[in-house]
């Protein structure tokens, strides 16, 4: 399985994705530092919310095979700058999270548009709560 590093704003679902990938009980906790799992790397939301911490994200990504930019579909804004994916010399995918909470398909499409503007190669729409789209993400990581 490919090792993935998740980057996204605070509360976007990075830790939940790591817990799900590793078969752990899903429980909210605020990630305070870069946390390594067997097949994933969890990063604090501050790594993307504060430009001066981009370096921490770049250094941490060295241990990953793929970069996962995580966008919560219930949030209108995105912290990913245009073409952000180009700073990585690895495949970059997008993950739209919390699709079960979307009030409309437009919210999901807006999240996809944020990720496309950031330059991701492929987008996965997931709900770890309702087990939607997570198998497709796992299949991608197992290729």
Total of DSSP H or I helical runs spanning 4+ residues? 5
Helix content: 25-40%
Mean pLDDT over the full residue set? 93
- Which spans of ≥5 residues are poorly predicted at pLDDT below 50? none
Which structural class best describes the helix and strand composition? alpha/beta
Protein architecture, described:
The protein has five helices and six strands. It is of the alpha/beta class and 143 residues long.
Which properties best describe this structure?
alpha/beta, 143 residues, six-stranded mixed β-sheet, 5 helices, globular
Topology, element by element:
Blueprint: E1 4-8, H1 14-21, E2 35-36, E3 40-42, H2 46-49, H3 54-60, E4 66-72, E5 92-97, H4 105-118, E6 122-125, H5 134-142
Parallel strand pairs: 1-3, 1-4, 4-5, 5-6
Antiparallel strand pairs: 2-3
Structure summarized in a few sentences:
The protein is 29% helix and 19% strand. It has five helices and six strands.
